[in-house]
Write a structure and sequence with these properties.
Elements (H helix, E strand, L loop, with lengths): L6 E4 L8 H10 L4 E5 H7 L1 H11 L2 E9 L7 H19 L4 E5 L10 H22 L2 E5 L15 H8 L7 E6 H4 L5 H8 L3 E6 L1 E2 L11 E2 L8 H10 L6 E3 L4 H5 L2 H16 L5
Helix pairs in contact: 1-3, 4-5, 8-9
Length: 278
């Protein structure tokens, strides 16, 4: 079996697979690319991770995640920014074009969204030159507003672009993740505005009822209510030519055998997304 050449299996979709198994499963499913996460890379060590990726022959479409630097100045912020510098180096070593950034939520006892977003912008400003020197893009991911308190004060693609467009797109870009942004009435205009700043396109579906842990509410494309046609057409029209990741957080998906999940991902992508790619 050979999947569509632009499909990438984000490692979160097969969460319980270690790095070596994730690479094996992805390759066995005929998928040419994988989106990696830092934790499984750290489990084997960066040098070994690079060897495993090289031996697999797979492209690494992104590394997740950096960010979480919305807090005020102090030791925690300095540590977060230093950790992001390490993440940039890891991204480059693994051959990925983008480090996905999740901004971080509101600091404890704060309701100042505007201030938190400004601190996110300032942190990215500190890191942009390092990213440029490493040859990778810092990809800001807007998360659905239900995550604003604990995960991301950047809630719309427009807000992500307000930061990203202050920098060269080779250094700072955005992620278009259908789960997080499909609902936004200004989304198509924001995608057009993004142009070369689109560093990653991630697809999965939205269905209700949401899980008790709303983080685990993503579904395979086609299993929910998202209309992928206009979103995908807009991303392509903006000039994005990179890999398209399927990234799913869902306990039932995680509990299934990983080979079955990879095969189901190929099937869903071929049915829903591939026909839109021309």
């Amino acid at each position: 079996m050979t999947a569509h050449p632009r499909l990438s299996l984000n490692q979160a979709t097969i969460k319980y697979a270690g790095l070596a198994e994730a690479l094996r499963v992805t390759s066995a499913a005929g998928i040419a690319a994988i989106g990696l996460w830092r934790e499984p890379v750290a489990e084997v060590g960066l040098a070994r991770a690079v060897e495993l990726v090289t031996d697999s022959g797979l492209r690494v479409s992104s590394l997740c995640r950096g960010g979480f630097f919305s807090m005020p100045e102090g030791p925690s912020r300095r540590a977060a920014i230093d950790d992001n510098r390490h993440a940039i180096d890891e991204t480059a070593a693994l051959g990925a074009p983008a480090l996905v950034l999740v901004a971080g939520g509101l600091p404890k006892d704060s309701k100042d969204l505007a201030g938190a977003r400004e601190r996110v912008r300032d942190a990215i400003g500190e890191l942009a030159d390092h990213a440029g020197s490493a040859g990778i893009s810092l990809a800001i991911e807007a998360l659905h507003p239900m995550y604003v308190s604990d995960r991301a004060v950047v809630s719309t693609l427009g807000q992500a672009l307000d930061i990203a467009t202050q920098f060269d797109p080779s250094r700072v870009g955005v992620v278009v993740d259908t789960f997080h942004v499909f609902w936004d009435p200004g989304l198509l205009a924001s995608i057009a505005r993004a142009g070369d700043h689109i560093a990653s396109y991630q697809v999965c579906d939205w269905a209700t009822p949401l899980a008790a842990d709303v983080l685990l509410s993503r579904h395979q494309p086609g299993d929910g209510i998202i209309d992928f046609a206009p979103l995908t057409s807009a991303v392509l029209a903006a000039g994005y030519r990179g890999d398209i990741e399927v990234e799913i957080f869902n306990q039932k998906v995680w509990d299934a055998p990983v080979d079955e999940t990879a095969a189901r991902t190929v099937e869903a992508f071929e049915s829903v997304i591939a026909p839109l790619l021309g």
